[in-house]
Design a protein that fits this description.
- The protein starts with a helix and ends in a 22-residue tail after the last strand.
- It has helices at 3-18, 35-48, 51-56, 60-65, 68-78, and strands spanning 22-24, 82-95, 98-108, 120-131, 134-138.
- Strands 1-2-3-4-5 form a 5-stranded mixed β-sheet.
- The chain contains 5 helices and 5 strands; from the N terminus they run αβααααββββ.
- The chain is of the alpha+beta class.
């Protein structure tokens, strides 16, 4: 295989692997200035497993309380699946600066040897807060932040 053909094959492989993630039905987020952009950026980073940049999109108080290394450890343990799609189901805002995005994650879990299982979905109520005009993700999980109790948003179904 020539060098050009090999390079083209690699570029095609990279393009195909990046095209497997999608964020769908974001219309409900458009009414909150900046929320759509922050939501898309956060979940795109999560799909790429870019935890360094995900951490920077977490709420400022969270960044003060949890070290980047602790965050990467926790998120690395909790994200063994390949995220394929995030679909927005709706949005509720308790205040102009506090919104919950109901969304459905489509992912493929992997077993201990790294082989993919069947495709699965999970509905969750994803919390977002606006601070100084910028929207941030709120990760509330009793394993990572036991001081906040059991009122976590990650992994809790929207049907509860």
């Amino acid at each position: 295989m020539s060098r050009a053909a090999g390079l083209m094959a690699v570029m095609l492989l990279v393009a195909c692997s990046l095209s497997h993630f999608a964020i769908r039905n974001t219309d409900p987020l458009a009414e909150r200035k900046g929320l759509l952009e922050s939501f898309n950026r956060y979940w795109s980073m999560r799909a790429k497993k870019d935890l360094k940049h995900c951490f920077l999109l977490e709420a400022p108080y969270f960044q003060e309380m949890v070290s980047p290394s602790h965050y990467r450890l926790y998120m690395g343990l909790s994200s063994k699946a390949k995220l394929q799609e995030v679909s927005v189901l709706g949005m509720e805002c308790e205040r102009p600066f506090l919104c919950y995005v109901r969304c459905r994650l489509t992912f493929t879990p992997k077993n201990s040897s790294g082989a993919s299982w069947h495709e699965d979905t999970r509905d969750l109520r994803d919390c977002w807060v606006r601070v100084n005009g910028t929207w941030y993700h709120v990760l509330r999980n009793p394993l990572l932040l036991p001081q906040f109790g059991g009122g976590g948003t990650m992994g809790i179904t929207a049907n509860r």
